[in-house]
């Protein structure tokens, strides 16, 4: 167990080093989400759930950051490393399969948390708001990385090569950008659509991030202030949805993920 943890940390450090050396990956993973946040913050949205439209949007943007820092990043990484036989060599070496996957997930978590910190500085600089429940935000980040890391592993198995990865990720990316409750609460949608949106993994992540940041109930459209205990109680259904998605993602990854190059 201890050896696997050490291998995972070492692989995560290697992953982060490679991201820092690759200008294209650095732009797609780190800068693109910030640009999207800037774009969303310019939308003419009035006050929503008791806060300004800009604050409401910015505190929901981490749901979209997951698409780039975790999902797209890991689909590309898993696919290219599989085709270059890196995954095959790793599997035949000392790190276990769990350590290899955990290393990639850990590096994605570090990138994602760094983006959330930058976003928090942005909100504090211009709105004077500090996060109210940092542990909830960290838990949302960890669960989100676990879900979309496993889904990324599954999608990499369906991706023939690194070039096709840009196309393979589009369905999930579009669903996240359209369905994520970034500019409006999920429960303002018509009945069936609200139910479907609420069950998607990006929605509970956005709602936990927003509630943790603002210290108010943003699992509904009310926005009432909650105590720390009240925030955690309100978050329980969202945590449950994410745990179910981790199971689903794990089953898909086990079924579809490939360690060796695809043929044909």
Question: What does the model show?
Answer:
The protein has helices at 2-21, 23-41, 53-58, 62-83, 86-92, 97-127, 134-157, 165-168, 170-179, 191-199, 202-214, 228-256. The chain has 264 residues and is mostly helical. The chain is globular, with a radius of gyration of 18 Å. Residues 63-253 form the ABC-2 type transporter transmembrane domain. The chain crosses the membrane at residues 25-43, 55-78, 99-124, 136-155, 167-184, 232-257. GO terms for molecular function: ABC-type transporter activity.
Features:
single chain; 264 residues; mainly alpha
Q: Class by helix and strand content?
A: mainly alpha
The count of strands amounts to 0
How many structural domains does the protein architecture include?
Answer: 1
| Beta-strand content bin | under 5%
- Order of SSEs, N→C? HHHHHHHHHHHH
Task: Please give the largest β-sheet.
Answer: none
CA-based shape? globular
From the N-terminal CA to the C-terminal CA, the straight-line distance is: 37 Å
Q: Which regions contain 5 or more consecutive residues with pLDDT less than 50?
A: none
Taking Cα atoms only, what radius of gyration do you get, to the nearest Å? 18 Å
What is the count of DSSP helices, taking H or I runs of 4+ residues? Answer: 12
- Average pLDDT works out at 83
- Proportion of residues in helical segments: over 70%
Keywords: Membrane, Transmembrane, Transmembrane helix
InterPro entries: ABC2_TM (IPR013525), Nod_factor_ABC_transporter (IPR051784)
Main location: membrane
GO molecular function, one term: ABC-type transporter activity
């Amino acid at each position: 167990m201890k050896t696997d943890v050490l291998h995972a940390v070492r692989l995560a450090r290697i992953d982060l080093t490679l991201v820092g050396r690759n200008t294209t990956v650095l732009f797609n993973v780190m800068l693109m989400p910030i640009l999207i946040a800037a774009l969303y913050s310019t939308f003419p949205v009035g006050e929503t759930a008791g806060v300004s439209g800009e604050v409401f949007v910015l505190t929901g943007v981490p749901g979209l950051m997951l698409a780039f820092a975790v999902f797209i990043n890991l689909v590309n990484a898993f696919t290219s490393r599989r085709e270059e036989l890196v995954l095959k060599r790793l599997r035949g070496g000392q790190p276990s399969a769990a350590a290899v996957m955990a290393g990639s997930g850990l590096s994605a978590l570090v990138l994602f948390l760094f983006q959330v910190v930058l976003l928090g500085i942005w909100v504090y600089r211009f709105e004077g708001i500090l996060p109210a429940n940092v542990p909830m935000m960290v838990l949302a980040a960890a669960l989100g990385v676990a879900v979309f890391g496993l889904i990324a592993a599954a999608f990499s198995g369906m991706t023939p090569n690194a070039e096709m990865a840009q196309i393979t990720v589009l369905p999930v990316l579009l669903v996240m950008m359209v369905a994520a409750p970034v500019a409006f609460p999920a429960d303002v949608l018509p009945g069936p659509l609200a139910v479907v949106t609420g069950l998607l993994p990006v929605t509970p992540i956005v709602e936990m991030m927003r509630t943790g940041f603002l210290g108010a109930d943003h699992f509904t459209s009310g926005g009432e202030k909650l105590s720390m205990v009240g925030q955690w109680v309100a978050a329980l259904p969202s945590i449950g949805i994410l745990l179910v998605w981790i199971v689903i993602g794990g089953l898909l990854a086990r079924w579809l993920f490939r360690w060796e190059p695809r043929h044909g």
